[in-house]
Design a protein that fits this description.
alpha/beta, Quinone Oxidoreductase, Chain A, domain 1, Rossmann fold, 2 domains, 10 helices, 27% strand, globular
């Protein structure tokens, strides 16, 4: 038996802001018959994570492409791999059976053919939560927020925390974890609706619309008159400069992402290095993969908070394979609120 497998690819490298014409929907025949002993597997894709870092994989060159395997360059014409939830439809791997629910690296497509048994995939227990949670709050977005805040920022109760892109997939969780831990938290976002979400639903102490601020350094001075202890950076460029200018001695900066720089080669952060030296500020980049050793703690803590209603999963779901390009492009235009996900199919 074979099925028609539709998938999304890039036509060529994308070196500026992505646009619809950069992407192409292709269809190929996929046989559901697998050679026994091959360890190959075919899964039906259900939910797929949409992440800004993928733009760096689409570029003709990015330093990130050689740093770690999952950031490797995407070849034009081939299916784009991404983190997601799927259901096994055929398996020659004894560790997986038909109808198993799995999470890991799949593709922007209807189905994924996973070859050789060396794929990053695991079975999971939904634990009573929606399957989409495995892509966001209980997946790498959640681990990024948890590991970045607790292991990189090393917070102390009562410290003052600033989160940029605070309504995004990671930022909203950092703010919630920080509040639950006992910190004072201010976030910035790009619309009055997102600011209201941060303050009224997610419990941030304060929030502001960065688009309404002509001087970011002055704005942060206004919101942090006694200085910033922790800055969780999802943006880079001028926001990082402004945060460093307002940081306290021994402040910590966790650099999770620099989305403002991904599509604009002219934008680069230039924090005052005298501040970094004399305030003894720590600036550390990190990846979710660095914190797999706390994965069980992260899952336990997060599921407890979800069940007691102390933590909210904020999701922004697009439906259907055709929505992949617009969902991805929207990340760079501030369209999403919370974790951006494409629902490819029902279970």
């Amino acid at each position: 038996m074979e099925v028609a497998n539709r998938y999304i690819t890039i036509k060529t490298q994308v070196d500026g802001e992505p646009k619809e014409s950069d992407f192409e929907l292709k269809t190929s025949a996929l046989s559901l018959s697998l050679d026994s002993g091959s360890n190959d597997m075919i899964v039906k894709n259900l939910y797929v994570s949409i992440d800004p870092y993928q733009i760096n994989r689409m570029k003709s060159h990015s330093s990130s492409q050689k740093a770690i395997g999952f950031a490797a360059a995407i070849t034009p014409g081939e299916a784009i791999d991404a983190y997601g939830v799927a259901k096994v439809v055929a398996s020659a791997n004894p560790e997986f059976e038909k109808d198993d629910l799995v999470v890991g690296l799949i593709t922007w497509g209807d189905y994924s053919l996973l070859k050789g048994g060396n794929y990053m995939l695991r079975k999971f227990d939904p634990m009573g939560f929606p399957l989409s949670y495995q892509v966001g709050i209980l997946g790498f977005s959640g681990l990024t927020a948890y590991g970045g805040f607790f292991k990189v920022c090393k917070p102390k109760k009562g410290e003052k925390v600033f989160v940029s892109a605070a309504s995004g997939s990671v930022g909203n969780l950092v703010g919630q974890y920080a509040k639950l831990f006992g910190c004072y938290v201010v976030g910035c976002a790009g619309s009055k609706e997102k600011v209201a979400l941060l303050k009224e639903k997610l419990g941030f102490d304060d929030a502001f619309n960065y688009k309404e601020e002509s001087d970011l350094k002055s704005a942060l001075k206004r919101y942090f008159p006694d200085g910033i202890d922790i800055y969780f950076d999802n943006v880079g460029a001028e926001m990082l400069e402004a945060a460093v200018a307002n940081m306290n001695t021994f402040g910590r900066v966790a650099v999770c992402g620099v989305i403002s720089e991904y599509t604009d080669a002219a934008k680069r952060a230039a924090p005052d290095m005298l501040d970094v030296v004399y305030k003894r500020i720590t600036i550390q980049g990190f990846l979710a993969a660095d914190h797999m050793n706390v994965f069980s703690d992260f899952i336990s803590t997060t599921t407890d908070h979800l069940r007691t209603g102390k933590l909210y999963a904020i999701e922004d779901v697009s439906n259907g394979l055709e929505s992949f390009p617009s969902a991805f492009i929207g990340l760079f235009r501030g369209h999403n609120t919370g974790k951006k996900i494409v629902k490819v199919a029902d279970e």
